[in-house]
Amino acid sequence: MRLIPQVKQLILAGQKFSLCEAEAIHINNSSTDLLGAASFLKERIKILTGINIALSIGDRDNINGIILRHDEEDSEEYRIFVEKDRIILEGRSASALFWAIQTLLQIISLNGQEIPCLQITDFPDFRHRGFYHDVTRGKVPKLSTLKSLIEKLAYYKINELQLYVEHSFAFRNIPELWGGRDPLTSEEILELDHYSKRFHIDLIPSLASFGHLYELLRLKRFEHLNELNIKASEIPQNLWDRMAHYTIDPTNDESYKLIKSMIEEYLPLFSSKYFNICCDETFDLGKGKNLLRVQKEGTGTLYLEFVSKLIDLVRSHGKTPMLWGDIILKHPELIKQVPRDVVFLNWGYGADITDENIRILADTGVRQYVCPGTQGWSRFAYDIGTASDNIRKMVQFGFQYKAVGVLNTDWGDCGHINLFAGMFHGMIFGAALCWNKESYSDDDFDRAVSVLEWGDKSETLYRLLRELGGLCFYHFGNIYAWVSGTEGLWNKEQKVKEIGVGELQNNYDRAVEVLSKLINLRAIGNQKRLEFDELVFGAKATVWTLALLLFKKRHEYNQRLEIPVAKAELIKMGYDVLAELIRLWRIRNKESELQNVVAVFRKVLEKVQGL
Predict the structure, then answer these.
(1) Which of 444, 446, 439, 407 is closest to 424 using CA atoms?
(2) CA distances, 139 to each of 83, 218, 312, 425 (Å)
């Protein structure tokens, strides 16, 4: 049976239990956890099957129906017994019972009203199973979108969620930071925190507090706190600088006061015992105002001095600090100076990732999460192949080196054009492996998730999407670099010149075929029309991008080839892609920074017109 995650032990017994004959969903007391679990199960069975099963409370175990019970242990192990006249769900804890319910719901989704008799014993490989979603680099989701994300994460037994925030929260004392950008509000965070508890998910705050402070340090009243000696408020917005620069000056007393005020406003909104101060990619540290000091003492000392203040601040509020591990890994001799309760988030996103950084932290005895990525950032179609290799390796390394958790990441670089449904594969794959690290080959998983998530009986949806994600190396950040003249990692024009015409033409032709096959699968999206439209959009945008590259090679780089799409049609395709992106964006997200994406598209199409 293709359950996600795969359970640790499943024994089939040969008979069936019929849901339509269930007398009740039975609990032995009306505690909040049990009553909530029973009500949730009743609601979801009604949605899946149309069957309305009554709730029953009392000391009765001989009921013909579904019996829920849990202990009060600190364990997520659960058991399911499906017999011919009843189903028993037992959890070692309330959260364990909730995971048992999610497994039963998957069984119902796959089998309908007739449930095969079976026994399941199940428990996770990692206690902390997290997902990290960027809400700062373009799209700020609506509250309803975030609630739907909570529900989907819980369905696959993820129990932690972090939302990445730089300027996308409505800080009371810095209205110019978020004005006109539709930030998350304190009321929304409070409601989402309460909602996440119903699904046994810990909503953990995550706030940039050292590096990645682009919007904050471009404000006139705070630009003097930039490590770099520049008047940032006078420099036009640049999405590459937003990723690559703007570290706060850690030696200015005002810097700590400012960050402290932001943390102390944000922290109380969350019930989690953790707080992620981020402190990653402090690229500019020691390259401006602190150059002389760094030359004498080293970058690591200066970094740790400021981070230690933030750690002490978070701990003074009774929270356990988390931070990204990339900077401290460059100075491993300083790790022993960090308090032992701090959790390091050890990220690495390549398909060829090694265990080196994980081993370094493990050898020091600190607590760490391994943090792979879904490989969708700045892409119209997620690179499922790279993500699968990366996630599988990171989970295995995490288990080998006794990491305390897994935090699978989904970023939104360069305007966050990657849409919600695109991240499902990597998100669910990470959920599957951090619960059961030995489960599923890539092909088996693609088939299983095509069926369970989409009801695709052909089992082909994610095989097509996996192929699609590998057809185009050129993403939206590269497009942005091209039209803005930006250098750096996003500039791929040399590769555009060098890639073979035949390879590019074949990729274009294949992307057209994949798009056609996806459209033919549209019937599976009847219950998830929006999500399926997002996947089709990714294919259409990939076709357009590949056509753009062929056009560029012919008309900008003067290479001999027959282009598949003439200029006028290419421009029309581009405007169609933009219109669909705007439509889909507005359904799930606030307006936020859509104007940045629209501006880039318009510049691209104007440039094409001039070639």
Answers:
(1) 446
(2) 47, 20, 32, 20
| Collapsed DSSP state (helix, strand, coil) of residue 559 | coil
Comparing C-alpha atoms, which of 112, 128, 120, 139 is closest to residue 20? Answer: 112
User: By three-state DSSP, how is residue 437 classified?
Assistant: coil
140, amino acid identity:
V
User: Which of 97, 101, 83 is CA-nearest to residue 18?
Assistant: 83
Alpha helices in 455-566 (DSSP H): 461-469, 476-484, 493-498, 501-520, 529-555
In Å, how far are 247, 345, 387, 394, 431 from 348, measured between CA atoms? 21, 10, 11, 8, 17
- In one-letter notation, the amino acid at residue 88 is I
Domains observed in the chain: 9-122 (3.30.379.10), 128-439 (3.20.20.80), 461-610 (no CATH)
Query: Among residues 141, 139, 142, 104, which one has the least CA distance to residue 122?
Result: 104
Q: What is the pLDDT of residue 526?
A: 66
Pick the closest to residue 381 from 454, 476, 460 (CA basis): 476
HEC secondary structure over 269-324: HCCCCEEECCCCCCCCCCCCCCHHHHHHHCHHHHHHHHHHHHHHHHHHCCCEEEEE
User: Terminal CA-to-CA distance of the chain, rounded, Å?
Assistant: 55
User: Read out DSSP for 186-255?
Assistant: HHHHHHHHHHHHHTT-EEEEEE--SS--HHHHTSTTTGGGBSS-S-GGGSPP-HHHHHH---B-TTSHHH
Helix (H, G, I), strand (E, B) or coil at 339: coil
Q: Which residues of the chain have pLDDT under 50?
A: none
Strand partners, 160: 130, 202
Q: Say if CB 549 and CB 561 are below 8 A apart.
A: no
90-to-59, 82, 110, 200, 383 alpha-carbon distances in Å: 16, 12, 21, 16, 39
Q: CB under 8 Å to 610, separation ≥6 — which residues?
A: none
Give the 3-state DSSP-derived string for 561-597, with helices as H, strands as E and coil as C.
CCCCCCHHHHHHHHHHHHHHHHHHHHHHECCCCHHHH
- 3-state class of 156 per DSSP? coil
SS3 512: helix
Separation CA 277–CA 46 (nearest Å): 42
Selection from 389, 428, 391, 419 nearest residue 406 by Cα = 391
Sign of the alpha-carbon dihedral angle for 216, 221, 222, 226: positive
Structure tokens at 303: 């970094």
Q: Enter the tokens of residue 564.
A: 């598949």
Q: What is residue 607's predicted lDDT score, i.e. its pLDDT?
A: 97
Where do we find the tokens 């970094």? 303
Please tell me the distance from the alpha carbon of residue 550 to that of residue 499, in angstroms, as a whole number: 10
Give the β-pairing of 25-27 and 128-134. Answer: unpaired
Q: Which residues of 162-190 are buried (b: 16+ CB within 10 A; e: fewer)?
A: bbbbbbbbbbeebeebbeebbbbeeebbe
pLDDT at 61: 67
